[in-house]
What does this fold into?
Amino acid sequence: MVEQRGKERETILITGGTGFVGGHLIDYILSQPSSFQVVGLGRSSALHPNRNNPRLKFYQVELNDRVAVTALLDEVRPNRIFHLAAQSFPGLSFADPTGTLNNNLNTTLNLFEAVRTVGLAEYSRILSAGSGDQYGFILPEELPVLETNPFRPANPYAVSKITQEMLGYQYFRSYGLQIITTRAFNHLGPGQSDQLAVSSFARQLALIEAGQIEPVLKVGNLEARRDYTDVRDIVRGYWLALDAKECKVGEVYNLCSGQSYKMADILELLLNLTNCTLTVLFDPSRARPSDIPQICGDYSKFHQATGWQPQIQLEQSLQDLLDYWRNRVKVGTV
It folds into this structure.
C-alpha cells in the first residue's frame, strides 16, 4: 500500500482546471486556510487569476493520451482528484454526438486506468462530476427528482454522463477506486460560456447596453423550467463531497437548488438589471431537437451527509454574470 502523506502536504488534482467550474473550484480551494497543493489540468492557464500562486501548478496534459495521464499521476500522486473535464454543452452534443461520447468516456477511462495502474486506488479519493441532465424526461409526479429516479436522457451529453457514472461504479466495485459521484443540476455564475442559455442572455444584454449589437435579444425555448444553483455553491459542494467522511464511496449525490425556474422568468430578472429597451426574438437555431419541460432536484441526501445547501441567491448569480459580461465588453474581449 502507498504510504499516506500528512494532511499538510495533500495534493489536489483537478481535471478541467481551466474551465468554468474548474476555475471556480481552484479559487475556492486556494481560499481555504490550508497548505493543499493544487494541480490543474487544462488547455491553457494564461488567464487564470491565481496562475502565479505558488500553491497552484498547471499541466497541459491531453487526457485522451493514456500514457501521458499515467505518467502525470505517477509523478503527482494526488490525495484527491476532481474529475471535471468534459464536453459539457448539451446543445453541442447534438451537433457532435461522436465527439462528445468519445471525449467524455475516453478521458474518464484513461484517468481511472491511470489511478489503478500506478497504485492509487486506496490512496486517492475521486469525485466524478455527473449531471442532473442524466435524468432527462422527468415525469411530473417524480419532482423533485431523487438519486433513485430512472434515467431518460434527452441528449448525447446526458448519455455520455450516464456512461461515465456507470464506468465509475464498475471501477469502484472491480478495483476499489474511491469514487464519489455527484449529479450537479444547472449552474451559473461569472465566467460561464455563452453556449449556455442564461450566459448567452447576459452576453447579449452587455453588448446591447454598449451599443455594439442591435437591441434584439435572441432566445430559445423560454417555457422550459430549470433548477439553477450558483457555481460557487456547486464547487463548495464538490469539496465537501470528498472532504466529509459521511459521503460514501460508490454513492451518488444530487447538487441542486430544489427550485424550478421558468426560463422566461430568469430572462425577466436579467432584464430588470438593465435600462435597455429591446425586443426579445425567438431564434429556432437556439432550440434543441428535444428539450426537457421541467427539471427540479432534491438535494436532501447530500444535505444530510454534509450540511450543504445553496447560499447564493439567483438574483446575485445573475447580477454577477451580467457584470462579468459587461467587463468583458468594456475591455474588448467578447
User: Anything to note?
Assistant: The two ends are 50 Å apart (CA to CA). Confidence is low (pLDDT under 50) at residues 1-7.
